[in-house]
Write a structure and sequence with these properties.
mainly alpha, 2 domains, 84% helix, 0% strand, DNA gyrase subunit B, transmembrane, transmembrane helix, membrane
Length: 187
């Protein structure tokens, strides 16, 4: 996978975070007020922002084509239900794909700690695996809910519970990292 491609200056850093924040906001505001078609149009716009940011252009072009096909084909509800599946699969591929070279979490860790010790490299590889597996499981749950659950159940999971689970994983990883650092320093 190598080095991550550079996006347009300044866009790479804000576009993913903005999309992650806007997804639940759009889900809880746009869906009840304007319905599934308007929400799918919002998701198309979010995917378009990602494509414009320039990072993973082919992936985001594929997402845009799928969402637009569903929108134009009159399948707005299926389109909104599949959006979190597509995003989680994409993130799982980013995390797990990075294991072929320098794991994504190691790249992030080296931003603040350029001389990461071997124990840190091993730890970041494991954390990258954990996040990749988490995103894969999240995608499978979102897919099952997209296909078989009532819209409100899907909405609660994808717009709240999955974010809570990710936050818990982040907090748990931070606690484990502190313990690993103490153990490594005292070894």
């Amino acid at each position: 996978m190598g080095a991550m491609p550079a996006g347009r200056p300044g866009t790479r850093h804000w576009s993913s975070s903005l999309s992650m924040v806007l997804f639940p906001v759009a889900l809880w505001i746009v869906l009840p007020l304007w319905g599934t078609r308007a929400l799918l149009i919002t998701f198309v716009l979010l995917a378009g922002l990602q494509w414009l940011a320039g990072l993973h252009r082919l992936r985001w072009a594929t997402v845009l084509i799928i969402l637009l096909a569903l929108l134009l084909g009159g399948q707005a509800e299926l389109g909104i239900r599949l959006y979190p599946v597509i995003i989680n699969v994409s993130l799982a591929l980013v995390f797990l794909g990075s294991l072929r070279t320098t794991p994504l979490i190691e790249r992030l860790a080296r931003l603040s700690e350029p001389d990461l010790p071997p124990a840190g490299v091993r730890y970041t590889r494991r954390v990258t695996w954990v996040w990749g597996i988490f995103m894969t499981i999240n995608a499978l749950v979102a897919l099952a809910l997209a296909l078989w659950a009532p819209l409100q159940v899907w909405q609660i999971y994808t717009g709240a519970i999955s974010y809570l689970l990710a936050a818990l994983l982040m907090a748990g990883e931070w606690l484990v990292r502190q313990r690993v650092r103490r153990t490594t320093v005292h070894a």
